[in-house]
Amino acid sequence: MCPETVLRLRQSDEWAGAYSLQPIFGLATLVATVQINMLRDKEESNPAVMSRRTRVLCLVLLGLGACISGYLLYHHLAPAPGLGLAFCSAVFGASCEETLRSPLAIQLGLPLAGWGLVYYGTLAALLLLGWAVGDAFHFSATLGALLLSLLGAVVSVGLLAAMASGVAPLCPLCAIVHVVNLALVFPLKRLTGHTTRELAGAVTAAGRYLLGRDPTDPQQARWQGVGFLTAALVGVAIYQWVYVQHTVRSAHAQAAFDAEETLVLFETLAPQPVKYRTDDAQTANPDAPVHLVVFSDFQCPGCTKFARALEAVRQRFSDRVHVVFQHFPLSNQCNPLIDNPFHPRACEAARAAEAARRQDRFWAYHDALFAANLPANEDVSLVEVAKQVGLDIEQFQTDRQSDAVAAKVQENVEQGVALALDGTPAVFLNSRRVYDLRLQALEFLIQHELEHHIHDGDGRHEHATEELGAK
User: Fold this and answer.
1) 107 by DSSP, 3-state: which?
2) Is residue 87 scored above 80 in pLDDT?
3) pTM over 0.85
């Protein structure tokens, strides 16, 4: 199911209008303003007051980064993320789903969001321990946190560059985390209370001590050793938790196909009044014993993935399965169930596909448009796809802007609304909803329905036709 599920998110016009990356730049501006004001007041303020303000700023940034990282990790691990990713699309106008599913999302065996939790947890542990222990560990802890934050900032610059260059899909929430990482460097540097040259000298001295070339006070060394070890254990504990969660969820997602469980779930579902018209997009075998009705959205990542499974089904079962395509764009431009433009190009893509159907080239256009990956490449030209599949462009342009095509898309949407669809793709096999959309599960259920039809004779076919037939 498409992670951006259909949710009635009642939001004000102010939120709905935030269809941009302005919140990211707003956060950066806010942090920069706070930093500038603190520098401006440095000479005028009490040092103790300034230290408290800087500590508060550090904790706020750490909390913000940890919350967003945890939020992204939750949706990365969830089999079908919903509200969070819909929020991402609604507020920023760009989905985080594509980024969370990209190869860059997992590094060194762990989701990047999980590494974020390890990073923020370790930083917080260092700072809190430094403040709690006092002079014996305060400077060393703050310096360690600063060095760790510099490493995080370098990584963030690289990931921001990857998103800016198109190597990685844009993830607005991820971008906010990277802004937080960059912003953390400055207050942490101020917390040390030393100049850059002095800090460089301290790092050199620490290196000499680790190499055994510079003896130090044994008691202070013990406090520092315990402090750093404790912070490291906090990071390791978070790492272990994330690793276990990631491993368990990954194993569950790749679990062996259970035919019995799949069949029991399918058979317990009540048939739904799913119908179609003869002028709907469909394969040319309406008398087939098995009917598959697919509600889909050309800008839905889950639908893009499912399109490959659907093509395999069409090729394997040929005229034994009658496939009907129904448009259900997740956008308020043509779907009354949606309050925000989750998929801003979904409605125009649906009308373009309908225009292709009028030239008997729906499936060619369907396959080409999904292959173009509209969820990840919003700049895909619908006209270029039409040229690619050999459409009459003048007729295509006229049809996709016509009232008749818009009405046809709306008709499909209305049936989806009547069925209370909760997302896309939504698939119905002989009137029953199919929830496991893996190719293996889908092929198993289709084969079961075919065998059931053979054993039961024409009665089952007639029942399916009554439920799904043209009206």
Assistant:
1) strand
2) no
3) no
